[in-house]
Every structure is written in C-alpha cells, then in structure tokens.
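hey can u check if this looks right to u? its 257 residues, i copy pasted from the old doc so theres a chance i mangled smth
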Amino acid sequence: MTSTPADPHAGAAPAWRRVLAQTDFEARAILRNGEQLLVTIVVPVFALIGLTKVTALDVDTGGLSRIDFFTPGILALAVMTASFTSQAIASSFDRRNGVLRLLSTTPLGRGGLLAGKVVGVLVVEVVQVVVIGAVAALLGWRPDPAGIALAVVAVLLGTAAFTSLALLVAGTLRAEAVLAVANLALLVLAVAGGVVVPASRLPGAMEHLALLLPSGALGEAMRDAFQHGTLPAWSVVVLLGWTAALGWGASRLFRWH
C-alpha cells in the first residue's frame, strides 16, 4: 500500500488572496511607521507649503501660479519617497532579519512577495496623492483635467523604475548602507535631479543630465501632464529604459539572505 505525499500547499489561499494579504501588510507597515510616514507624506506636504508660501524664494514659474508650478514636482517627489527610499530601506532590513527568505519559502513565494511589495507601494501612493492633492487644492491648485489620466501613467512608470532601483539597492547592500544611500540619493535627486525644479532651470550640463535620470523624466512627465495635458515621449522612453535596466540588475544580483 502506497501513500501519496502531502501537498505542501494544500489548503493555501488562492494566489491573488495571498498577494492581497501581503499588499495590506506592506502598505500598513509604511503608513503605521512614524519615520516612513514622515518621509512619504509629511515632508512632501511641508515642502509644498514652503515652496508655495515663502515669497523670498525667487523662482521663474513661467507665468504659472506657484502652486501650479510646484505641485507636480512635489507629487513626483512623493512617488520617489514611497517607491524608492521607503521600499529600499524596508526591504533591506527585512533581508537582514531573514524575513524575505522566510516569506519566499511560504506559499506566497518570491513572485507573490514582490507583487505584494509593488502593489503595497501603489496603495501608499494613492494616499500620498489624495493628501498632497487636497492640500494643493486648498492652496489653489488647478490641474489640467485632460492630464489626470496621463499623470496616472507617469506615476506607474515612475513607480516601476524606482521600485526596481529600490530592490537592486536593497538586495545587494547591507541594511545600514542602504539607509544612508537611499536618503542621500533622494536628497541629491530632489535638489539636482529635475524633480521639484524643472531640468531647464538647472545650470549648465546638469540640465541635460537630469533629463536622462528617472527623477528628471518623472518630474517632466508629471509637469507636462498636469500643466499642459500631455505626456512627453522622451520621459516615457527614459523611464521604461531605467525600469528594464534596473529590473534586469535586480533579478541578477538580488540576494534573499
């Protein structure tokens, strides 16, 4: 008499439900963490208010109101904080503590774990857009209605690129190094990466360099969408190119433990 080996996945929830549960966990982990909440929502909101209300800051807005000029860039910055900085730090410490290796051996699997992380980032970004958009609207922001759908496309492209970068960094560097690198990279890109301030306002060669970075491409895409109702083809190409390159690198170099 022979016995059939027990199915290790018997009784497991459907794949979509496992991913949904992981998504819920990932989003709550970010939104319940004071430090993460500060970086992903509070800082962008205060940056928006400061850039809009501090009249001593002399910026050529090209005829736009300050709130219409700065809001798209602040939303792009918020996408970067959620999909890159927050995700890189959280994933690196999960790797160091053995959480990633443990979850990858459960019915969730590596694919489900990564899917949950990506969708969790998107959930956080929805919260960011609602909060920052509401504050901007109270300050007089009036985006081009025709560009809202295009801005969603830009957010998805930016999320793909920066989540790929986050996983590459988190899967190859020590957690303590990721903490420093992610925060430093965010600061540099925010100041000189064409995110908050358009690349055309940057000096010399920095203008051309910014347009080749995912930060500059995302910033330009968000500004064109909300201010002019268009989506620049160059930004789409740059973001897709970075997503492909960083995704390939992450798939090759990511270490689960």
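The two ends are 41 Å apart (CA to CA).
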